[in-house]
Amino acid sequence: DIVLTQFPDSLAVSLGERATVTCKSSLGVFYPSDNKHFLAWYQQRPGQPPKLLIYWASTRASGVPDRFSGSGSGTDFTLTISSLQAEDVALYYCQQYYTTPPTFGQGTKVELK
Amino acid sequence: EVQLVESGGGLVQPGGSLRLSCAASGFTFSSYWIHWVRQAPGKGLLWVSRINIDGSHTSYADSVKGRFTISRDNAKNTLYLQMNSLGADDTAVYYCVRDGHCTTTSCFGNWFDSWGQGTLVTVSS
């Protein structure tokens, strides 16, 4: 199975500041035939199910604010929140869908400083 | 609006069985692959199983293979998960999840674009 490791496990950011979460894959998730990276990001607020934020490593899902962006290639990917809002306090997970089983990172907790 | 409503969770003794259901609405159920993803209390996400649009393809995590069976009834817009030989490690919230990518019988690459609220399964004596 592909192992995804997220850094850091938690981070505290002031309102309006940038938050950056990193996801490192044990194997590359780029599929040349589609020219895409098979990686997604999710947000899980307390007591809620996860919500899709990003797929194909950098495509925002419908309705996701543009302060959320995804980037990266090969085995290293980043989720950036450009200007943290109070409602962004949550757990964030990366997920690869290059192989079966699809696997998730362990999660990164984003809190307010 | 896409809705996925799980039911059937509860307390079950080790070695017991449980059948989860997921009622779908707000989209053409028969056009989407559907998954089960679980989350143990205070832990991360674990993909459990998937089924393609007509039920001809299913897949399972190694930890549940041979014990769990996924199925669907497209006429009833409902997904099922039959869980047998349950152990304490199966204690989790089980989410019914729509695939964001696959809408044909054969597909490669599953991300998850809509999640139900989940149903809690507790395995304990």
H/E element sequence of chain B = EEEEEEEEEEE
Shape of chain A: globular
Instruction: State the end-to-end distance of chain B.
Output: 39 Å
Largest interface: A-B, 22 and 21 residues
Arithmetic mean of pLDDT of chain A: 97
| DSSP strand tally of chain A | 13
**What sort of overall outline of chain B do the alpha carbons produce when their principal axes are compared?**
globular
* Terminus-to-terminus distance of chain A: 36 Å
Which structural category do the helix and sheet elements of chain A fall into? Answer: mainly beta
User: How much β-strand is present in the residues of chain B?
Assistant: over 45%
What percent of the residues of chain B sit in helical stretches (DSSP H or I)?
under 10%
Written account of the structure:
The complex is a heterodimer of chains A (113) and B (125). By secondary structure, chain A is mainly β. Helix content of chain A is 0%, strand content 51%. The radius of gyration of chain A is 13 Å and the shape is globular. In chain B, 42% of the residues are buried. In chain B, a hairpin with a 5-residue loop joins strand 4 and strand 5. With 125 residues, chain B is mostly beta strands. The model of chain B has no long low-confidence stretch (mean pLDDT 97). In chain B, strands 2, 4, 5, 6, 9, 10 and 11 form a 7-stranded mixed beta sheet that branches. In chain B, strands 1-3-8-7 form a 4-stranded antiparallel beta sheet, with no helix packed on it. Chain B starts with a strand and ends with a strand. Chain B is built from no helices and 11 strands. At the A-B interface, strand 7 and strand 12 of A face strand 5 and strand 10 of B.
Give a quick rundown of the structure.
In chain A, 0% of the residues lie in helices and 51% in strands. Chain A has 113 residues and is mainly beta. Classes of the chains: A mainly beta (113), B mainly beta (125).
Topology at a glance:
The complex is a heterodimer of chains A (113) and B (125).
Chain A: E1 4-7, E2 10-13, E3 19-25, E4 30-31, E5 36-37, E6 39-44, E7 51-55, E8 59-60, E9 68-73, E10 76-81, E11 90-96, E12 103-104, E13 108-112
Parallel strand pairs in A: 2-13
Antiparallel strand pairs in A: 1-3, 3-10, 4-5, 6-7, 6-11, 7-8, 9-10, 11-12, 11-13
Chain B: E1 3-7, E2 10-12, E3 18-25, E4 34-39, E5 45-51, E6 58-60, E7 68-73, E8 78-83, E9 92-99, E10 112-115, E11 119-123
Parallel strand pairs in B: 2-11
Antiparallel strand pairs in B: 1-3, 3-8, 4-5, 4-9, 5-6, 7-8, 9-10, 9-11
